[in-house]
Amino acid sequence: MSNDSVDKLVIFLAKRDGIDKLVKTFQYLSKLFHWHTESTQPGLAHRAKQWEVASGLSRKAFRTGRFLTGFNALRRNPGPTPTFRFLSVLSNAGEMVYFFFDHFLWVSRIGVLDPQLAKKMSFISAFGEAFGYIFFIISDFILIREGIEAERRIVGSMEKSKEGNEMIGKIRGDRVMRLMAVAANLADLVIAVADVEPNPFCNHAVTLGISGLVSAWAGWYRNWPS
């Protein structure tokens, strides 16, 4: 591994989101491994399940206070237009509900609060998560469409130039990041629906495992130092 790659890894793991994506990878890889070995190697499956549970609980600890980021996002950049401000309020409100009630879910599962609260807290947290992600996805698709239209205008109105190429490069770079965000949010939406409205597809170990890894690796890509 080159020195540059090592430096980027150090920077990545110094971020709270970087650690979260790494531990999320452990969590959902162990879920898939548990599913794969459950019937053939019960001992290994049990260890994988313990790793999955421990990873999930540790991620909740890392997210302590994370709900405040929604307030900060609304304060710093509520949106360029009334439509985007409205979508921003809805998406960040859902995310704040998710992270806030996730605290109570965490302390219920570790036995500080009544463990019977865990199911209710999980539902409220997942509902807020699903609600918020829907509006994050809508916002990103609108911005992707606007970026495509802006790129077409630049291509149609300017001859090839350094400035034009730089603008197009920025638009395309932003598009890739937004597509990664959409992928992560869609994957997390599937996981949230599994809690809000349990069903055979969303609650299957393979669906949850793949969704978790898609979310983790899309987030990894977005947070990796450029």
Topology:
Blueprint: H1 3-14, H2 16-37, H3 42-62, H4 68-76, H5 82-109, H6 117-157, H7 162-196, H8 205-223
Helix pairs in contact: 2-3, 2-8, 4-5, 5-6, 6-7, 7-8
Tally of structural domains: 1
Roughly how much helix do the residues carry, as a percent range?
over 70%
Radius of gyration: 20 Å
> In DSSP terms, counting alpha (H) and pi (I) runs of 4 or more, how many helices?
8
Poorly predicted ranges (pLDDT <50, ≥5 residues)? none
Strand percent estimate: under 5%
Mean pLDDT: 90
Distance between the termini: 17 Å
Q: Please write the string of helix (H) and strand (E) elements.
A: HHHHHHHH
Shape: globular
Question: Major sheet: size, sense and barrel closure?
Answer: none
Number of strands: 0
Q: Please state the structural category.
A: mainly alpha
In short:
The protein has 226 residues and is mainly α. Helix content is 83%, strand content 0%.
Verbal overview:
By secondary structure, the chain is mainly α. It has one domain (3-223). Helix content is 83%, strand content 0%. The chain has helices at residues 3-14, 16-37, 42-62, 68-76, 82-109, 117-157, 162-196, 205-223. The longest helix is centred in the middle third of the chain and has 41 residues, at 117-157.
